[in-house]
């Protein structure tokens, strides 16, 4: 009886994760399309006014959209691996967090930010990088044991 309930719960989890993977695939696709359209639209507008370069605001928007696609892809990979191996990989979760905080650092307007918040962001980056390093070091040591 207990085994049957566990099987039902496992199938339910797999179904929900399959739905998440499908939705994430759609998000990745539309994020990439949005990025492509925005880049070509901005380049076209820039060419019309005979400028060679995009301005700071346009570049920041492009980077923001680019990092959104990267974050979506990493989340997609995390969920896909969970479906395949039935375990979450800490390295991918840490990588998604590092990409997300990197995105924030790139698009942040430094004129409107307090030094304390900058310090906090630096601390988050340090902790995430340290965690990623420790996970990778542990995996390397595990492979060397086998």
Task: Give a brief description.
The chain has helices at residues 2-48, 56-85, 90-107, 115-145.
Question: How would you characterize the overall build of this protein?
Answer:
By secondary structure, the protein is mainly alpha-helical. The chain has one domain (2-145). The chain is built from 4 helices and no strands. It has helices spanning 2-48, 56-85, 90-107, 115-145. The longest helix is centred in the N-terminal third of the chain and has 47 residues, at 2-48. It is extended and about 70 Å long. 6% of the residues are buried. The model has no long low-confidence stretch (mean pLDDT 85).
Helix content: over 70%
What is the average of the pLDDT values? 85
Number of strands: 0
Shape: extended
Spans of at least 5 consecutive residues with low confidence: none
- The secondary-structure class comes to mainly alpha
Number of domains: 1
Largest sheet: none
Tally of separate helices? 4
Beta-strand share of residues: under 5%
What are the secondary-structure elements, in order, as H or E?
Answer: HHHH
* Distance between the ends: 38 Å
Entry keywords:
single chain, 146 residues, mainly alpha, 4 helices, 86% helix
SSE blueprint:
Layout: H1 2-48, H2 56-85, H3 90-107, H4 115-145
């Amino acid at each position: 009886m207990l085994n049957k309930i566990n099987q039902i719960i496992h199938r339910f989890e797999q179904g929900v994760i399959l739905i998440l993977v499908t939705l994430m695939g759609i998000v990745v696709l539309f994020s990439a399309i949005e990025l492509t359209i925005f880049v070509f639209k901005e380049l076209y507008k820039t060419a019309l006014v005979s400028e060679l370069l995009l301005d700071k605001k346009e570049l920041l928007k492009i980077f923001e959209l680019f990092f959104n696609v990267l974050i979506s892809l990493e989340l997609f990979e995390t969920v896909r691996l969970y479906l395949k191996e039935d375990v979450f990989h800490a390295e991918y979760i840490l990588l998604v967090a590092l990409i997300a905080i990197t995105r924030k650092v790139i698009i942040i307007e430094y004129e409107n930010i307090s030094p304390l918040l900058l310090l906090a962001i630096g601390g988050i980056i340090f902790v995430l990088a340290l965690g990623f390093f420790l996970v990778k070091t542990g995996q390397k040591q595990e492979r060397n044991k086998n």
